[in-house]
């Protein structure tokens, strides 16, 4: 099956700093989503981005499907950005999302 | 617009027991998937239901079974619970036709003792 790798696995930032999270995947996909998992476990949709670039406030994401990677940018980080960020993909033939191992982000005040 | 709702939110079971978890999909969605998330890991796909049938299954034993009802809600059943079944169980819903954004519920935290 498809492999999804996220980097870095852990990230500590000072409030106000910027960061870039990366997601590499091993095969063609027709669905790629970024999620933020809050401390209570809920996965919050950030972006549906199988290709191209999207922005939502301080967050933006870019997926280069031909090179099989996606980037999530967080600008002017806030303590509420802390949590785990997951990238998940769906192969062209299939119904399931395959998740990466996540990036655990801690933003310090 | 109600999102994906799951129940119960937390439960504790004893080894060997059986458990049923419930999920109501987001309004307008017809496809429900279940995921298991062990501590410190990413969610793992268990199975997906559409039109009341299991459409795809991940690498989980037959102890894990499910059902989808005519109103699109779903249940996940786990028999003969093992300590290793302790995890967060997440329900996800989507609209099969569009197949785009997939939404998750808040999950059910299962502890097996």
Characterise the protein shown here.
The complex is a heterodimer of chains A (109) and B (113). With 109 residues, chain A is mostly beta strands. Chain A has strands at 4-7, 10-14, 19-25, 29-37, 43-48, 52-56, 59-64, 69-74, 83-91, 98-99, 103-108. In chain A, strands 2, 4, 5, 9, 10 and 11 form a 6-stranded mixed sheet that branches. Chain A has a 5-stranded antiparallel sheet with strand order 1-3-8-7-6, with no helix packed on it. Chain A is globular and about 45 Å long. The model of chain A has no long low-confidence stretch (mean pLDDT 94). Chain B has 113 residues and is mainly β. Chain B is 0% helix and 50% strand. Chain B is built from no helices and 11 strands. In chain B, the strands form 2 sheets. In chain B, strands 2, 4, 5, 6, 9, 10 and 11 form a 7-stranded mixed sheet that branches. The mean pLDDT of chain B is 94. The chains are: A mainly beta (109), B mainly beta (113). Chains A and B meet through strand 4, strand 5, strand 9 and strand 10 of A and strand 4, strand 5, strand 9 and strand 10 of B.
């Amino acid at each position: 099956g498809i492999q999804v790798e996220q980097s870095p696995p852990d990230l500590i930032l000072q409030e106000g700093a910027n960061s870039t999270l990366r997601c590499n995947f091993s095969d063609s996909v027709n669905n790629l989503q970024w999620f933020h998992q809050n401390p209570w476990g809920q996965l919050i949709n950030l972006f549906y981005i199988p290709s191209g670039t999207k922005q939502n406030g301080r967050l933006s994401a870019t997926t280069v499907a031909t090179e099989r990677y996606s980037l999530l940018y967080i600008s002017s980080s806030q303590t509420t950005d802390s949590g785990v960020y997951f990238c998940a993909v769906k192969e062209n033939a299939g119904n399931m999302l395959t998740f990466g191992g996540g990036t655990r982000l801690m933003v310090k005040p | 617009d109600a999102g994906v709702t799951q129940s119960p939110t937390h439960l504790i079971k004893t080894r060997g027991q059986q458990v049923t978890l419930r999920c109501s999909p987001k309004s307008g969605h017809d496809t429900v998937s279940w995921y298991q998330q062990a501590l410190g890991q990413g969610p793992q796909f268990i199975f997906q239901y559409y039109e009341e049938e299991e459409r795809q299954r991940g690498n989980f034993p037959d102890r894990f079974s499910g059902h989808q009802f005519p109103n699109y809600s779903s249940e996940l059943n786990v028999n003969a619970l093992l300590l290793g079944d302790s995890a967060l169980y997440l329900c996800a819903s989507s609209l099969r036709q569009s197949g785009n954004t997939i939404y998750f519920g808040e999950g059910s935290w299962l502890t097996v003792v």
